[in-house]
Design a protein that fits this description.
The protein is mainly α. The protein contains three helices and no strands.
Amino acid sequence: MAKTAADCTTMAEIRENIDRVDRALMALFAERWSFIGRAAEIKAGLGIPADVPERVREVRDNAHRNAEALGLDGAFYEGIWAELIDCAIAHEKALLGEE
């Protein structure tokens, strides 16, 4: 059952809820990934390359700012987003035949 961290009184409840949040995060990552493939399709029609440095910077800045707004370490989460972006660009390059 979904609980807040403050409502948990046992390690079993903590672990259950961490696992629940992890599943939810994976569902969101899967949804995000679906947009990556679609972006490649749209970019192909418009002649836009997979790697658009201005957009990469914008997404990284957004991650940093969004993390800090929630009291998290902006640099850490920007780093995670950098990994996501690198993987997405590699995937788009493969789809667009840019490799």
